[in-house]
Amino acid sequence: MEWMLVTGLLAALWVGVDVVLLGSPYLFQIMYSQFLSVVGFILTYNLIPPFAEKLKARGLFGKDLNKPGKDVPVPEALGIIPGTVFLVCVILSQFMFSSDAVKLLEYNAGLLSICFMILLGFVDDVIDLAWRYKLMLPTFASLPLLIAYRGSTSILIPKWIASLMSIPHLINLGYFYHLYMGLLAIFCTNSINILAGVNGLEVGQSVVITVATILHNLLELFWSVEDGTADDNPFASMHLFSLLISFPFLACSLGLLCHNWYPSRVFVGDTFTYFAGMFFAVAGILGHFNKTLLLLFIPQLLNTILSLPQLLGVIPCPRHRIPRCNPNTGLLEPTPNLTLLNFTLRLFGPMTEKRLVQILLLFQVLCCAGGLVIRHYSSLMFFFV
Amino acid sequence: MEWMLVTGLLAALWVGVDVVLLGSPYLFQIMYSQFLSVVGFILTYNLIPPFAEKLKARGLFGKDLNKPGKDVPVPEALGIIPGTVFLVCVILSQFMFSSDAVKLLEYNAGLLSICFMILLGFVDDVIDLAWRYKLMLPTFASLPLLIAYRGSTSILIPKWIASLMSIPHLINLGYFYHLYMGLLAIFCTNSINILAGVNGLEVGQSVVITVATILHNLLELFWSVEDGTADDNPFASMHLFSLLISFPFLACSLGLLCHNWYPSRVFVGDTFTYFAGMFFAVAGILGHFNKTLLLLFIPQLLNTILSLPQLLGVIPCPRHRIPRCNPNTGLLEPTPNLTLLNFTLRLFGPMTEKRLVQILLLFQVLCCAGGLVIRHYSSLMFFFV
Question: Which of A191, A275, B36, B291 allows an S-S link to A83, with CB 3.0 to 4.6 Å?
Fold first, then answer.
């Protein structure tokens, strides 16, 4: 039932994009990307079971801590499959831009950052990197992206704040803007990684955010077509870029979600969370909607803020911070750890794992919907009143 | 003794490059790359022992088949360390070109191809990919490189052949040239991978070829400085690119060789051979010396031709094709498998493993030296007489 709903909505989105952009100069590129994405979904879905067996045989498996009594080993690090398939899909998209060096540069810089993060994630899954590497290496991985960034380094300040503080409306941050983008990449990678611990949550939240990303870029692109500014509008081509990499990401993530949804037959590993985090950073930075991206990351932002006392070591931080499963009732109960999962369980009381994931994903949907409304209907008010 | 000789020669090369280019506009960039490379060597050398322990603990180790009686497990896949350090070094080199989109494109496309191959190599070491993936995935990995290639697609035919066959002296191959480059990338990756099986051979041959690559690019660059054409000579900037990525590769490989030389404390894995192969393809293609590169790959070419009957399945091909160690004499003896190693043992008789590696590397040095002489002193004759 729920799957039919999700499938229907996604199919509507898939076709809807084409309908909205009917007659626009982008339609062919979008449809080519969608075609590759469908192939990517089929590949991801079918490659996961055999590779899961191989990874398990190599000792890459975990215990599902929320299923007491069931000591079945679940294969780990399956994010490597959607990651690799995504890279192949997007590399094949490059043919559309082979004559445009600046466009190709963005593609390659973005893909390099993503590929480097997949590599680091997989190495982390295999040999458990120390924390200093986990924080340092994403910084290097995001550098190609930051160096290739060719856009504005200015931010708009709301007029009333600007006049209140007697500062200009438009501030050029220069290298501080690059610093901000680097921090954004580190935030995206790690915030998805720590909003985790119940079946399907990592991939589920990524799918919801990607759908919101697609809708946002579609709206921007649609308006630039309506305005007739599409051809010489640099922002239009940026949103197109973002759309063209979002479809393969959505498709490959869905292929993984089919196996990772409750009850999980495979785990996604740091490979997937790093991959997803860097994907959003690339889409947001090269698509020039990095402030909107933060609006779509509100649950991750809340969870990170909640977790800060433990992450910074003010309060002791155990290896796992997930809820506890009561073996008598089969329901999840909160632990004292500071996470959005435990907070939700405190708010609504003990519940099944599946219900907890559903509630968290519903919250993600509401936040993303709210974020898009704020962005598209209130931003004018916010910035110009 | 031998180590002092090698160290002395390398130090001479290191400083020699700076001396030759003294006063040229490239000196600063070269020295920055050399500085990063020294840091890269130190990092690689020091990170390998702790990571070797971690990989071994995860079950990533092999038996050293040429040391009968010694059943010590040797950690595998250590190519991941020089690979990752190399990526970080070259990403940090990008700052020098941050304003030049076309240059950055080449950097990022080349790095993406290399990074993708490191990822595939490491996955292969962890879960042993099937042959169809091993052949297919390097093709995708080399695509960014081919799409970003902005150079000529013509080849020069020696005049006497051209006049004999009544064809033009300069032939534009168009897309066939791209096909040729793709095949070159696949050849480089796989030919290093199969010229292997005795301690230190994979890294040793890569080090020798890299030194030849550096000398070749240095000569080209030196002549363009002498001619006074350096500033507006597109070839000069291509050879500079090649030099700037060759130093970090040489340094990181040397850091690995220190641990991989006979008797090996670590094995390099497919991670290193794929990494090295794609590095040479990138350096050769974006440095525009891909025909010269083939001259430096003569031992690999011979070994591949020798191996063809077994690779194609005309003659049965066992899992390992390495020589056999006679436990009584401790010497390696040839097996019936068609490889350069067995051929060498047939030619010179049984010998120790260390001596076999030395002979093969000496052969590599002679081939590279000969290749450079042919390229730099005979090419004019060959093409214009």
Answer: A275
For chain B, the average pLDDT equals 89
Would you call A105 an interface residue with chain B, using a CB distance cutoff of 8 Å?
A: yes
Instruction: Report the residue of chain A nearest B106, measured CA to CA.
Output: A105
Single-letter residue type at B83? G
* A147/B95 Cβ within 8 A: yes
pLDDT score for A385: 45
Q: Which of B91, B115, B128 sits opposite A115 (nearest CB)?
A: B115
pTM of the entire structure? 0.93
Contact A111 B54 (CB under 8 A): no
Q: What is the pLDDT of residue B385?
A: 45
Which residue has 């070797």 as its token pair?
B52
Q: Is residue B14 part of a domain?
A: no
The boundaries of the domain holding residue B148 are: 24-291
The answer to whether the CB atoms of A55 and B122 lie below 8 A apart is no
* B112/A contact by beta carbon, under 8 A: yes
- Is B37:B251 a contact under the CB 8 Å cutoff? yes
The share of chain A scoring above pLDDT 90, in percent, equals 53
The mean pLDDT value of chain A amounts to 89
Cβ-contact A116, A136 below 8 angstroms? no
What three-state secondary structure class fits B197?
A: coil
Q: Is residue B53 part of a domain?
A: yes
Q: Do B140 and A51 touch (CB under 8 A)?
A: no
Structural domain contains residue A284: yes
Domain count for chain A:
1
CB A71 within 8 A of CB A281: no
